[in-house]
Every structure is written in C-alpha cells, then in structure tokens.
Amino acid sequence: MTPQPTAASSPRPVLYSFYRSSCAWRVRLALNLKNIPFDTRPINLLAEQNKTPEYKAIQPFGAVPAFLEANSQGPALVESVAILEYLDETRPELPLLPKDPASRAKVRALVEAIAMDIQPIGSMRILKYIGKDKEAEWTSHFLKEGFSALEKMLEKTAGKYSFGDSVTMADLLLVPQFYNGIRFNIDMSAYPIMSRINSELETIPAFQASHPTKQPDCPPELR
Amino acid sequence: MTPQPTAASSPRPVLYSFYRSSCAWRVRLALNLKNIPFDTRPINLLAEQNKTPEYKAIQPFGAVPAFLEANSQGPALVESVAILEYLDETRPELPLLPKDPASRAKVRALVEAIAMDIQPIGSMRILKYIGKDKEAEWTSHFLKEGFSALEKMLEKTAGKYSFGDSVTMADLLLVPQFYNGIRFNIDMSAYPIMSRINSELETIPAFQASHPTKQPDCPPELR
Fold it and tell me: Which part of the chain is the GST N-terminal domain (chains A, B) (predicted)?
C-alpha cells in the first residue's frame, strides 16, 4: 500500500477541476443539477499542476476531475463517469438514469460513446504527442467520425434531450463534447440532432452555471 | 427515426463479437461468469464485416460488441461497459459490483481507467490511422503510460483480484487489456500487481472459456 495523500477534510464536497476540462465539466453539471453545494479546487493543466506527486497520488493518470466527498479524509474518487454513477447512487433525487435496465443501457451507451469513442482521442495528452502541426487534421478526422456515429445513435433515442424528454447522464457528456467540437473548428451544424439538444440544454440554469467561463479558475479575459 | 434492422429473435441472447476484440471479450466474461448461455454471431473486423450498412444500423461506430437480449426483436444494446452494467442489473446473482457506493465507484474507476484511458488509444481504427510504421512506438508509449497509472490505482484497491478478494467488473477489463499488452510486446512483468491478478484470474474456468482462442470464430491455426 502507498501512503495516502492527506486530504484536508471539508464540510462540502470538493471537485478537483480545470475550468476547460470536459471531464470535470460533466461532474460539475451533475453537482449543479442535483443542487449539491461544492468547492472547486483548481488544478491548472496548462501549468502542469496535474503532474505533481501530490496530485498524482490522488489521480495516477494526472487527469481531472477528482471528487472528495464532504467530511471525508479521502481517498478522493476519480474518473468522471464513475463519479457520476456515485453521485446518482448517493443522491437519487433528480436521477440521471431512467429506471428500467434497457433504457439505462441506452443512456449509458450514449455516455460511453462520448467518453470512450470520442473524447479520449482528442484529449490533451494525445494531442501533445501528435504535435501542433498535425492536431487539426487529427481532431477533424476523429471528431467528425465520432459525431456522425453519435448522431445516428441519437436518431433512435432523442426526444427533447439525448434520451427522451428528461435530462439524463448522456446530456452531461454531450454539452462539453459539443463545446470541444466548436473549439476544434468542427462545423457542428452538420449534426442537427446534437445541435438542437445542445441548444435546449443551454437554456437550463444548472447548465449555464456549469459553463467553463463561469468557473473560478477561468482566466478573466475569457469570461 | 431510422428503420430498425430486422434482428431475428432468438431464444438465447446473442453476442455480436470478434474473437480478438478486447471489448467483446469483456461481455463474454460477464456472460460466462453469470452462467448465461448465449450464441455468438461473429463479425469479422479484418474482413470489415463491421462496416456493412446492416451492422452499422446496429452499432453506428462499427464496433463490437453488440448484445441482443433473448427473445428480443432489438435494437441490440451497444458499448461494452453499458452492456456489463445491464447484465449486472438484470442478472444480479454473482454481482460484478460491490454493494456500497464508494466501493462501486472505486471498481468503476478501474473499469473506466482501462476503458477510456488505455484501450481506445490502441484500438484498431486509431492504429490504422497512425500507420504500421509508427504503431509500435505509439502503443509502447501509451500502453506503458496507462499501465503504470493503473498499477498505482491497483496498489490501493487490489486484494486477490483488482478490488479486494472477489471478482468484479474491473477484472473483466483487466484480462483482455493485459493480453493486448502482450500482443503489443509490452514487458508486462514491469507491472507486478496486474501480472499477479491476471495469473489468478486465468485459473478460473469462466475466464478460460472466454479466451479468444476458445471462440468459434478463432482461426484454427491460432487455437
């Protein structure tokens, strides 16, 4: 067993986060939707604060988010979807998943399509390895391929939101990934279902409060 | 709504699979561990049977696995971890997750570390894009980085298996990923906890029956 990092116990849950990280954004959305007050502990990825021994003892991949439960000495929970499932199990009011197993599987399939088949390929550590000169070609190829497939999945599942007419876990992944698409100069109008759902979600106060530009560690010039 | 593919209803569940796919292997392990008889419908990725319009109507990313429930007209369920969660919810005997939410979150974090932070980066569609000449350097870099971080996570959670002394969902991802490591010529002895757990799991009959070389679509010369 390695020594555990000393996590200062806090009366509110703590989210280790970087304002622009799409994975931290997912968890922020769950916390805000479920009306769970929390504190943000910024981990500046651009300044490599995620590579310190202290942070790597919490999250060995050096990724955000990590989540420390209220009044807990740790260890903090890691991996965004695992944290979403945890929040839904411990705060079942305003559920993020439907009740019947087949519907839950369909929501989780949308979650996984974004979390495993789309997001990792455009993540910062991959792009660093690919190199600045090839970044645009790489992200264009894989994001377009991923968004096309996701749009096909949404044809079968979407109502007002990604799965029917209630906000689900899938929507918590869709909004940050849509934003990444724009950031990487993808023409998102090519994906009309995603675009419509994203616009619907943007009108919800918890989604507005979760936006990167509203976070304490967002540089003032980007607000 | 797009037209649904006509899935011939079957009295046993059907797994759309490719013998060597690590993601299909995860689901096969769950089915075998839970003693659920099923039929395999082979989708030969090397012959691009995953790129046909028929298969893409089932799985828009053209990935395996897909899972058709017994006596169901479809649509088939997709994305391996979503299918694992579904199987655990519908067949709760021999559970794949512990009972309390914090422990479940730790198992799911191991699952996600493999499913999102390690596996996708070495997947066939990425490697095809990277090109044969750069494949070895790419997989060596990212698999070693991923396995080192996973080993650190396992330091905190492992007992006899990945999480304590019972087989969990995390073990269903570990074994196929370990095999991928060997296939990509990674020296797996550098990861003693993973290696020990993998050896333990290899002694379990359900794990032996799930091995790629035991599948109906495995070429005879590889058995």
Answer: 11-95
Whether B105 sits inside 8 A of A115 (CB atoms) is no
SS3 A159: coil
Domains of chain B: 14-94 (3.40.30.10), 101-207 (1.20.1050.10)
Assembly ipTM: 0.95
Q: Do B89 and A104 touch (CB under 8 A)?
A: yes
d(CA A223, CA B18): 48
**A51 or B223, which is more confident:** A51
Distance CA B43, CA B94 (A): 29
Could you tell me the CA-to-CA distances from A81 to A31, A110, A204, B110 in Å, in that order? Answer: 13, 12, 21, 11
Give me the residues of A, 24-63, that contact B with CB < 8 A.
56, 60-63
Q: Is A3 on the interface with B (CB under 8 A)?
A: no
Paired residues of A39 in beta bridges = A14
Sequential DSSP letters for B145-173: HHHHHHHHHHHHHBSSSSSBTS--HHHHH
Query: Which residue shows structure tokens 């495993």?
Result: A116
Residue B156 to residue A2, Cβ atoms within 8 A: yes
Mutation target to probe the A interface, by most A beta carbons within 10 A, among B83, B116, B141 is B116
Q: How many angstroms away from the CA of B220 is the closest CA of chain A?
A: 31
Task: Measure CB to CB from residue B104 to each of A4, A86, A106 and give the nearest one.
Answer: A86
Q: Average pLDDT in the B180-202 region? A: 97
Strands (E), A23-138: 39-42, 66-68, 77-78
Exposure string for A187-220, b = 16+ CB within 10 A, e = fewer: ebeebebbeebbebbeebebbeebbbeebeebee
Q: Which two tokens stand for residue B211?
A: 């091995």
A88 touching chain B per CB within 8 A = no
Kindly give, in sequence order, each residue whose CB lies less than 8 Å from that of residue A141, ignoring residues fewer than 6 positions away: B129
Q: What is the mean pLDDT of residues A49-66?
A: 96
The chain B residue lying nearest A90, using CA atoms, is: B101
B127's CB contacts (< 8 A; 6+ apart) are: B135, B138, B139
Residue in B with minimal Cα distance to A3: B156
How many residue pairs from chains A and B have C-beta atoms closer than 8 A?
130
Give kind and range of the element (H or E) at residue B191: none
Q: How wide is the angle at C-alpha B208 spanned by C-alphas B205 and B212, nearest 5°?
A: 155
Give the residue carrying structure tokens 């939707």: A33
Residue of B nearest to A159 (CA): B1
